[in-house]
Every structure is written in C-alpha cells, then in structure tokens.
Amino acid sequence: MDMEKVVSLCRRRGFLFQSSEIYGGLNGFWDYGPLGVELKRNVKEAWWRDMVATHDDLGTLPGAPSPYDMVGIDCTIIMHPQVWKVSGHYDLFIDEMVDCRTEGCKGRFRVDHLAGSECPLKPSKPAGGSDKCSLTEPREFNLMFKTTLGALGGEEDTAYLRPETAQGIFVNFKNVVDSSRVRVPFGVAQQGKSFRNEITPRNFTFRSREFEQMEIEFFCHPDTSRQWYEFWRDRRMQWYKDLGLAGDRLRLRDHDPDELSHYSTGTADIEYAFPFLSEGEYGELEGIAHRGDFDLRSHMEGKLDPKTCPLTVEQGDDGKPRHRGSGRDLTYRDDLTNERFTPHVIEPSAGADRATLAFLCEAYTEDEAPDEKGKMQTRTLMRFHPRIAPIKAAVFPLVKKDGMPEVAQDLYKALKKKFPAVYDAGGAVGRRYRRQDEIGTPYCITIDGQTLQDQTVTIRDRDSLEQVRVKLDDTVAEVERRITA
Ligand code: ATP
C-alpha cells in the first residue's frame, strides 16, 4: 500500500482536502470533502451505536449480575480554566522542541520525533560548510491553544481550547449520577473536537492540530477495575477488527511498567502500521488506560499528594495546593451495599480522524478485473466494510432509453430514503463500475432489458465481482440486509 496513492485518491475523489487550500493551506488542519464526511460520520456512528446504543450486545464481566449502564454527553470545547490546572494539562501537557540553527533549514521538531541528535531535514549543503545541522537546546512548549474570554482580554480572561474531551466527563460525573439513574459500573461516552498545538503536525490527518476524539470514561468499583480494564481493552480491539482492520497491520500493545503514568496500573495501545511509517513501526489509534481514582480525586481535592502528583505540590501563600480542586464530593454511594467509594476509571480514548485514516489506508486496493471487452485491467478499489462505506449503492440504467431511466430513478429514490445512494447514467457500464469501485460503493445495481420483461435487476458485489439477479421489489431490502449482515 502506497501512502501517496491513498492521499491522491482522497483528494481526487473528495475524501480530504487541505484546510484553506486556495490560500496555500494551513499546516495541521484538514477538511473532509463530500465522501470523507460520510465516511467519518459512519465511523463515529458505528462507535456510538456499538458502544452506547447497543452496548448490551458487548456482554459484561463473567458473573456480573446485569449489563452495565452506558450514557452519552456533549460538553463545551472551552471549559473553566481551573479544569486544566487540576487535570495536570496546564503544567504537564508539554512537549520538548528544538529548532535547527543551520541557515536555510528552518526545521522545528519535537524532541521525541528526532532520530538521535540529527536534524531530520539534513539539508544537502548546510551553510558554513559543516555537514551537520546544529540544533538548539530543547525548550518546553505547552500544547494547549489559548484564547481570551470577553472584550477586555486580561490575563485572568485566558481560557483554553480543550486538548481532550475526557475532562468534560469527569467534571460532570456528579451531574450524570444525580440525573440519570445510572449505577456503578457505568460508562459515559463523548465525541467531539479537541485541539493540540502540535509542534510538528504531519502524516496527513494522523497528527493534526484540530481533530475529533471518541472517548469513554467507565466508572467502576476498585475491586473489579482490573477486570473491566481487560474487558474494554479486548472489546475495543474487536471493534476495529469487526470493521475491517483485521490483518496483521493492527496490533494491541500493552505498555511496559516503565511506560505507565504514575496513576495507571495498566495501559494498552491499539496500533496500526500506517503506510507512511517505516517497516515495523506502528501508530496509535487508541489508548485504553486504567486511571484508578486519579481524575475524580483531583477534581475533588486538587493536587495534594506528592506521591501521585509530584509536579504540582507547589503551595500557594495560604499553604493550600496551588491548583485547588472543586471541593465537591465526587464519591459514590452504592445504595444496595451502602458502601461509599471513589470509583476507578477505565478510559478507552480513540481518535475519529486516525480511525478514519486507518480505514482509508486499509481499504485501498489494486487488483486485476476484466473491462467491458473482457480484457484484464488494473482496478483501484476501496474495500470499505459496508457499514462505513460512504455510498452504499449505485443505480445504473443500462441505456438512457426504453423506460430504463424511469425504473432506475424510482429504485434510486427508494434506496436513498434508507441510505446514501447515487444514480449514474453516464458512459459505459464498465466505466461506471470503476467509478464506484474507486470510492468503495459495495453494491451496483443495473436496470437492463430483462428488468423490463421480468422485473429483476442485477446486484454486483464490489469485492467478488459476483452478479446476482434479484426481484426489483426486493432490491432495497436485499441491499439493506447485506449492509447490516
Ligand atoms: P500521540 O502520542 O500520537 O501524540 P497521545 O498518546 O498523546 O497520541 P491521547 O492523548 O491518548 O494521544 O489521545 C487519544 C487519541 O486521540 C489518540 O489515540 C489519537 O487517536 C487521538 N489523537 C491525539 N492527538 C491527535 C492529533 N494530534 N491528531 C489526530 N488525532 C490525535
């Protein structure tokens, strides 16, 4: 799979465009075109449907009395600045960056993206005659975008665009418990934009400055938290497999103990071997973390304990911690056992754009297929899982006469009521098939002379190229059955 070919198809067929392209683009920002928006919506809808709406189908822990609760939430992008102080982002959401000092190079890099101490741009003849670029000392850089609230714009009016959606869930924990009759264990799901002022946005949408996350915070009893962590890790891995990332390009990687955050007793990444990475390298699609009671406790108490939060123990003049928590009681009382405890949290945190990019890369295929004259030709197709394919069906009248367009139009309208479909009457049928293959439409339906005699149509399968005749009246149901199978 060649990344340049994927990028070129995305642009040519309207999946992704550079943001503000007519002004030269803006680094780290991407727009989804007409097909891209359908694809990404389908990815997000599949996540919501599988994780929230029909989550009972995922099963539960062995021996657990009943399925757990799962609800959604939609929080604001700008939150109270104290949220980010207490979460640790204000002090710790930092990357180290270096600049290249060599004249004419102008490189700026995240330290952990450097291979050794070399400038990755390696200009062929750096000024000054030296073979090597010279880099500045690393400097710290906070990734949160700042903005200003209100008209006066003083320092105290500084606010931040959220760098993750998770905090909106933590600060609403009590609201959700009090308003929605959920009982621990339960999960709260959220999808939405997040912003990070990445030093080196790159690799298409993989590392953007504005992106969308799909996050779950799952609140459970400390005694069962380890089992719930394993439950979510395995369920989330299965989700990607079910939607088509089934090959060995997908892997689950448990973090080594020295990689874990100070509060985490287990973290795993779901990773994909994106084609822009070197052989053997994988990029993160999603992290599943056991976060203990770190988040709820921080929002109650602020940063107090030097063992759990070594960098924010600095005290204010009043002897209290610098970043004070809300002081609200975010513990939970089990009304059956009367036990009061601070729930532990399991966090499956995915990126909608990275998942969409992985599905695009995985779908890109070139094979050999016969053209109209039976001659084998190279064919480009996007093998999307039918659930996420942007267009589910295309309808072709074989010729633009003899009543075929009218029958085809009626069928197209009926299909369109159920899911995105297209009508295409232009050019040879073989060429129309190719157009749909290239955007990943799983089913093409042709209305031909026989349709007018016996009221049947052909449905052609994108991947197997198999064509079957079905009754015209059964076509919508048949396509629907295949998409949801
Ligand atoms: P990375 O190490 O690649 O920067 P991260 O570990 O900081 O990622 P998290 O904070 O765990 O990422 O965010 C959860 C998910 O959000 C990631 O798995 C990824 O899918 C997505 N994500 C994070 N940063 C970006 C970004 N800059 N562009 C696109 N998606 C992102």
UniProtKB/TrEMBL annotation:
Domain named Aminoacyl-transfer RNA synthetases class-II family profile: residues: 2-397
Query: What role does this protein play?
Result: Catalyzes the attachment of glycine to tRNA(Gly).
User: Record keywords: NADP included?
Assistant: no
User: Could you confirm whether the keyword Lipoprotein appears in this record?
Assistant: no
Question: Can you state which reaction this protein catalyses?
Answer: tRNA(Gly) + glycine + ATP = glycyl-tRNA(Gly) + AMP + diphosphate
Tell me the gene name.
Answer: glyQS
An example of a GO molecular function for this protein is:
ATP binding
Its quaternary organisation is:
Homodimer.
Looking at its record, which EC class is this enzyme? ligase
Q: Where is this region: Disordered?
A: 305-331
User: Which family does the UniProt entry place this protein in?
Assistant: Belongs to the class-II aminoacyl-tRNA synthetase family.
Where in or outside the cell?
Cytoplasm
**Enzyme Commission designation:** 6.1.1.14
Which CDD domains does the record match to this protein? GlyRS-like_core, GlyRS_anticodon
**Major site of localization recorded for this protein:** cytoplasm
Q: Which PANTHER family match?
A: DNA POLYMERASE SUBUNIT GAMMA-2, MITOCHONDRIAL (PTHR10745:SF8), GLYCYL-TRNA SYNTHETASE/DNA POLYMERASE SUBUNIT GAMMA-2 (PTHR10745)
Q: Which residues bind ATP?
A: 196-198, 206-211, 284-285, 351-354
Q: Which GO terms describe its cellular component?
A: cytoplasm; extracellular exosome; microvesicle
Residues recorded as binding substrate, renumbered to this chain, are R110, E164, F211, E212, Q213, M214, E215, E347, P348, S349, A350, G351
What is the protein name given in its UniProt record?
Glycine--tRNA ligase
Q: Which HAMAP family match?
A: Gly_tRNA_synth_B (MF_00253_B)
Q: Which controlled-vocabulary keywords does the entry list?
A: Aminoacyl-tRNA synthetase, ATP-binding, Cytoplasm, Ligase, Nucleotide-binding, Protein biosynthesis
Q: Name one GO biological process term.
A: diadenosine tetraphosphate biosynthetic process
Organism per entry: Pirellulimonas nuda
